[in-house]
Amino acid sequence: MRVAEVMNDFRTIQHRIQQYRVNPPQGQQQLTGYAILRQCHAEAQGLLSANFNAGPAQSSGSSPEALKRQLQRVLIDASARRFRVQKVYLRAVAAMRWVQGRNQILQGQQPHAGHAAALQRVENALAAELAAITDDRIVNELRQKDWSAGHYLAEDPSLATLQSWIRSQH
After folding, report:
1. What is the per-residue pLDDT for 1?
2. What percent of the chain stands above pLDDT 70?
3. How far apart are CA 57 and CA 148, in angstroms?
4. What does the DSSP assignment read for 36-104?
5. By the 8 A CB rule, do 77 and 165 touch?
6. Residue 22 in contact with residue 113, Cβ under 8 Å?
7. Whole-angstrom Cα distance, residue 150 to residue 147?
8. pLDDT at residue 51 in the model
9. pLDDT for res 26
């Protein structure tokens, strides 16, 4: 049941990321926020298409202990995917705020010296928002959301387990 909840959340976050599509003005495709959005879409797609890796093969057959270990690995993999896609999502949200702030400042005009200070504030806000996206924050937000939804969290992997799993997959 918990694996299904985690994977459903993964799917929902993926869907949200896909909604963040913009067409940058000509010549501005390489600006920070647009580049981050492209990177977020590529990372989200990569997570979606990544194969499941159950980890080291166990030769203990289908004993209850082996099945439990396999299910734990499935939950860790699903949780790691959700964790990673949540990080991508938060970066995409920050980039969209950058796009919106920039559009509000420029109001369809080309950037010029009169916009410099306001555009720099938008750049600084993006940098601060990206810096605030930490692994601890992501895990805490996901756990709070799950707890509020009444999900059973006792067997969810710790942050250290997630980080170790992610490192082992690369």
Report:
1. 83
2. 95
3. 36
4. HHHHHHHHHHHHHHPPP---S---STT-HHHHHHHHHHHHHHHHHHHHHHHHHHHHHHHHHHHHHHHHH
5. yes
6. no
7. 5
8. 80
9. 86
